[in-house]
C-alpha cells in the first residue's frame, strides 16, 4: 500500500470518528463508486477499510462527505470561474461577513465553506444564492481533503480552519434566508449575459451582470485585454452609476483565469492550407540555442557528514538508488531538530550572539527520484523515540488519572468532615489545613518530536508542552507554502518566520483554549517538493507576491540534485552496524545533558540556553569565511532573492558545525574539522540555491525548453495556438496559458517561432509557425 493510499484510508477513518458519514468517489471524476451514491455514506470503520484499506476495493478513491442532516453540516461552494468570489464579496459587504469556520480550498481553485446544519432542510442549489455560489445541503455531497482533482491539484484544509482545530460556525440569517428563497433571492444578482442594449444596469446588479458578460466572452475565446475593453465600454454606457475602473478590471482578470469553452470554438477549427506556415527553410533565420535554465550543482560528498552517520547514509542511497543528497540533508535536519533548544552555539568569543541548531530543509526532484522514501528512512529513529515517549506518556497519564481520582475522593471526605464539624460548632482549622495540604497531581505532557499537520493554535500548544521544539514533517511542502499565502494567514506566516530563529516567544488567548504562552519556540521543517510547483511558487514570490517575505529563503538545506543515472536492482539487507551507530547518535542527542557539556549563560544574560563556542583554530576559519561572505553580499552583485537566501547562512554554518561536532564528540569547543565541513556544506548548498532560484528569476527559459522539446519530438505542429499546447495534454511546465505564453514569447525572441494573426469569424485567431530549420534542419 502506497503512502498516498495510507493517507486516504487514515483520513477517511478520522472523518468517520468525527461523525462525518463518508463514501468513495472516482479519484478525479468524483462520481460515486458505490451503489445508491451518498445514501451509502457511513461512519462504520470496517466498511470504510473495505473501501480504502490495504485490500480495499478503491484504495485511491476520493473521499466524499454526505451533507445535510446526516453529517450535521452544509457547504457553501464558491466557484471563481463563474464569479462566485466577487459576488460573495458583494454579498458580505451588503449583509455582513460569513463567520470564521471550517474551510478548504478545492482542487479547482474554489472554496468550500462548512457551516452547521440549522435543524431544518437545506436544499441544494446551483447559482441561486448568486452566480458561482452553490449550496451542498440535504441530498448532496462534497469532496473532502486530501482527495485529488482532475487538474492535478488536491483539496486542502486551510491552515487554521480544518475540522478538529476550528469550530464549525452557524450560518448567518441572511444566508439561510437567501437559500430558502431560492430563485427569488437571485433576482438582485442575476443580470442577463448581454441583455437588451437599451437596458440600464442599476446598482446592485452591476457586478453580477458584468461578471456574466465577461464569463460569456471568455467562453467564446476572448483574451483578458479584449474582455477588459468590452466590460469597460458596457460599464460606461449601461451601469448607473458606473463601477470603479479597477473593479471592472478585477472582474476581467477573474474570468480570464479559466480556459475558453472548446465547444463554442468548434466552428473555427479548420483553416486554409496557407495558414500552416512557410515551409521554405531559407526564409527563416537560424534558431538560437535555448539558454541552460538549470545551473550546475556540486555533487554531494559524504565526507561532509559526521563520521557516525556517513556509512548509514551511503547505505540508504545505494539500496534506494536515490541521490545521496536526499538522506544526507534529511538526517542533518532531523539531528538539528532533536537538538532544538537543548544547546546553542555562540559564533563569537566575546559576544552573546546565539545560534540555535534547528534547520529547514527541502528535497526537490521529480517523483521518480525517490524523495520521500529516504526522508522517511532517516526519520525512523525518531519514530522509535516517538513510540517510546508515547508509551511513557500513556503510563504516566494512567498514574495521573488514578492520583486525580484519589485526590478527588480525599477532597470530598475532608469537605464532608468540615461540613459536619461546622454543623457541630467544632473548630475546622486542622481540617482546612489538611485540605490545603493535599498535593494536586501534575498532568503529564506528551513529548513530541514531529508534527505533520496542525493549525498554528494547536502547534502553539504542542510547543508550549515541548519547549525544545518540534520538526514539521511535510511530504509535499507546497501544500504548507500555499496555505500560508491565503488571506488571513499573515499571523501564521509570522509564527513560522519567528520559529526559524529558535528563540521566538508567543502568547495567545483563544476561546476554548485559554491562555497559551511560549517563552521560546523552535521549529525545524523537512519536506519534499517537485520542480514545477516550486518554480511557480518562486516566480510569484519574486514578482512581489505574498511569498516575498523571506520564508522560502529560510530553507537553507534545500537541494535539487542531478538525476542519479540508470536505475539498478539492489536487493540486500541494510547495513545493521551502520544503522545502529546512527540510531545511537539520534538517541544520544535526545538524552543530551546540555547543562553539563555547555557553558551556562551569565546572571544578566537574557538567554538561558547552554552553549558552546569555537576553539581558536575554528574561530579563525569561521571569521575568514564570514569576512569573505559578508563583503560579497555587500557588493550588490547578487539577485535580491539569492542575496536574501545567502544572508541566512550566518545561521546555517554555525548550526551545522555544532551538529557535526556533537555527533562525533561528547562536548568541548567546536573544532576546526567541524567548521571546515560546515564550510563545505555551505559551498555545496549555495550551488543548489542558485539552481533553485534560477526557476524564479528566469521562469520563461524552463517553459521555452519544455515547448522546444515538444516541437522537436513532433508533439506540436506548425500553426498551433497557445491553447493547442496546454489543453488536454498535462505536459510538465506547459500546464496553462500563462506558462505556454511565456514559452512562446521566449522562442519568438530566439527565432524558433513566428506569430500570425488570422481574421476569422467572430474574433481573430493567433497562430504560431515553427521555424522550418527546427522541423527539418539543413545538413
From TrEMBL:
Keywords: Hydrolase
Tagged with keyword Flavoprotein: no
Coiled coil: none
CDD domains according to UniProt: Prim_Pol (cd04859)
SMART domains to which the protein is assigned, alphabetical: PriCT_1 (SM00942), Prim-Pol (SM00943)
Single GO molecular function: hydrolase activity
Stored Pfam families: DUF3987, PriCT_1, Prim-Pol
Sequence ranges assigned to domain Primase C-terminal in this UniProt record: 196-261
DNA primase/polymerase bifunctional N-terminal domain sequence ranges: 12-175
Highest taxon of source: Bacteria
SUPFAM superfamilies per UniProt: Prim-pol domain
Protein name: DNA primase/polymerase bifunctional N-terminal domain-containing protein
Amino acid at each position: 500500500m502506497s503512502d498516498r493510499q495510507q493517507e486516504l484510508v487514515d483520513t477517511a477513518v478520522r472523518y468517520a470518528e468525527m461523525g462525518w458519514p463518508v463514501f468513495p468517489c472516482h479519484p478525479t471524476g468524483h462520481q460515486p463508486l458505490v451503489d445508491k451514491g451518498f445514501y451509502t455514506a457511513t461512519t462504520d470503520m470496517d466498511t470504510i477499510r473495505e473501501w480504502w484499506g490495504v485490500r480495499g476495493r478503491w484504495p485511491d478513491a476520493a473521499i466524499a462527505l454526505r451533507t445535510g442532516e446526516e453529517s450535521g453540516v452544509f457547504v457553501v461552494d464558491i466557484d471563481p470561474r463563474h464569479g462566485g468570489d466577487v459576488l460573495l464579496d458583494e454579498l458580505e459587504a451588503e449583509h455582513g461577513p460569513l463567520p470564521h469556520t471550517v474551510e478548504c480550498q478545492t482542487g479547482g481553485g474554489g472554496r468550500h465553506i462548512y457551516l452547521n446544519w440549522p435543524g431544518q432542510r437545506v436544499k441544494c442549489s446551483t447559482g441561486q444564492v448568486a452566480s458561482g455560489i452553490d449550496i451542498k445541503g440535504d441530498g448532496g455531497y462534497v469532496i473532502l481533503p486530501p482527495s485529488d482533482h482532475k487538474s492535478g491539484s488536491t483539496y486542502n484544509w486551510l491552515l487554521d480552519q480544518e475540522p478538529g482545530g476550528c469550530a464549525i460556525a452557524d450560518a448567518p440569517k441572511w444566508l439561510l434566508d437567501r437559500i430558502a428563497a431560492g430563485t427569488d433571492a437571485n433576482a438582485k444578482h442575476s443580470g442577463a449575459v448581454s441583455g437588451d442594449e437599451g437596458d440600464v444596469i442599476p446598482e446592485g446588479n452591476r457586478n453580477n451582470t458584468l461578471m456574466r458578460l465577461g464569463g460569456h466572452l471568455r467562453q467564446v475565446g476572448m483574451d483578458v485585454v479584449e474582455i477588459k475593453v468590452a466590460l469597460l465600454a458596457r460599464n460606461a454606457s449601461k451601469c448607473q452609476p458606473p463601477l470603479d475602473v479597477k473593479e471592472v478590471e478585477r472582474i476581467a482578470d477573474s474570468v480570464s483565469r479559466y480556459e475558453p469553452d472548446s465547444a463554442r470554438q468548434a466552428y473555427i477549427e479548420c483553416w486554409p492550407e496557407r495558414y500552416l506556415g512557410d515551409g521554405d527553410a531559407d526564409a527563416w533565420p537560424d534558431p538560437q540555442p535555448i539558454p541552460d535554465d538549470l545551473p550546475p550543482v556540486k555533487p554531494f560528498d559524504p565526507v561532509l557528514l559526521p563520521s557516525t552517520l556517513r556509512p548509514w547514509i551511503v547505505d540508504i542511497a545505494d539500496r534506494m538508488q536515490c541521490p545521496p543528497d536526499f538522506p544526507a540533508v534529511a538526517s542533518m535536519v532531523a539531528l538539528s531538530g532533536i537538538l532544538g533548544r537543548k544547546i546553542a552555539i555562540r559564533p563569537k568569543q566575546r559576544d552573546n550572539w546565539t545560534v540555535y541548531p534547528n534547520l529547514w530543509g527541502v528535497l526537490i526532484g521529480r517523483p521518480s527520484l525517490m524523495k520521500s522514501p529516504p526522508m522517511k528512512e532517516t526519520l525512523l529513529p525518531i519514530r522509535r523515540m516517538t513510540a517510546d515517549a508515547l508509551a511513557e506518556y500513556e503510563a504516566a497519564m494512567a498514574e495521573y488519572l488514578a492520583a486525580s481520582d484519589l485526590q478527588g475522593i480525599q477532597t470530598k471526605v475532608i469537605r464532608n468532615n468540615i461540613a459536619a464539624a461546622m454543623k457541630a460548632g467544632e473548630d475546622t482549622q486542622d481540617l482546612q489545613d489538611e485540605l490545603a495540604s493535599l498535593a494536586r497531581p501534575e498532568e503529564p505532557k506528551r513529548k513530541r518530536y514531529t508534527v505533520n499537520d496542525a493549525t498554528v493554535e494547536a502547534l502553539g500548544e504542542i510547543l508550549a508542552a515541548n519547549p525544545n521544539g518540534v520538526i514539521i514533517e511535510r511530504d509535499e511542502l507546497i501544500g504548507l507554502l500555499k496555505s500560508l499565502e491565503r488571506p488571513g494567514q499573515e499571523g501564521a506566516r509570522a509564527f513560522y518566520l519567528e520559529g526559524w530563529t529558535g528563540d521566538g516567544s508567543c502568547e495567545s488567548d483563544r476561546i476554548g483554549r485559554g491562555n497559551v504562552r511560549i517563552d521560546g519556540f523552535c521549529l525545524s521543517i523537512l519536506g519534499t517538493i517537485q520542480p514545477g510547483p516550486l518554480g511557480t511558487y518562486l516566480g510569484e514570490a519574486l514578482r512581489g507576491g505574498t511569498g516575498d517575505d523571506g520564508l522560502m529563503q529560510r530553507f537553507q538545506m534545500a537541494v535539487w540534485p542531478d538525476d542519479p543515472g540508470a536505475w539498478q536492482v539492489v536487493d540486500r539487507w541494510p547495513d545493521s552496524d551502520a544503522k545502529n551507530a546512527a540510531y545511537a547518535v539520534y538517541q544520544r542527542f535526545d538524552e543530551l545533558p546540555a547543562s553539563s557539556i555547555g557553558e551556562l549563560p551569565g546572571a544578566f544574560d537574557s538567554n538561558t540556553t547552554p552553549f558552546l563556542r569555537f576553539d581558536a583554530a575554528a574561530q579563525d576559519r569561521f571569521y575568514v569565511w564570514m569576512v569573505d561572505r559578508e563583503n560579497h553580499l555587500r557588493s550588490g552583485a547578487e539577485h535580491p532573492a539569492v542575496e536574501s537566501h545567502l544572508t541566512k547562512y550566518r545561521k546555517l554554518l554555525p548550526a551545522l558545525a555544532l551538529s557535526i561536532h556533537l555527533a562525533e564528540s561528547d562536548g568541548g569547543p567546536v573544532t576546526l574539522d567541524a567548521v571546515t565541513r560546515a564550510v563545505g556544506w555551505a559551498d555545496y548548498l549555495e550551488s543548489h540555491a542558485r539552481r533553485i532560484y534560477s526557476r524564479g528569476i528566469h521562469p520563461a527559459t524552463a517553459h521555452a525548453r519544455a515547448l522546444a522539446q515538444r516541437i522537436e519530438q513532433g508533439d506540436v505542429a506548425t500553426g498551433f495556438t497557445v491553447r493547442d499546447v496546454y489543453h488536454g495534454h498535462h505536459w510538465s511546465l506547459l500546464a496553462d496559458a500563462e506558462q505556454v505564453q511565456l514559452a512562446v514569447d521566449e522562442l519568438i525572441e530566439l527565432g524558433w517561432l513566428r506569430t500570425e494573426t488570422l481574421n476569422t469569424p467572430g474574433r481573430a485567431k493567433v497562430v504560431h509557425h515553427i521555424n522550418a530549420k527546427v522541423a527539418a534542419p539543413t545538413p
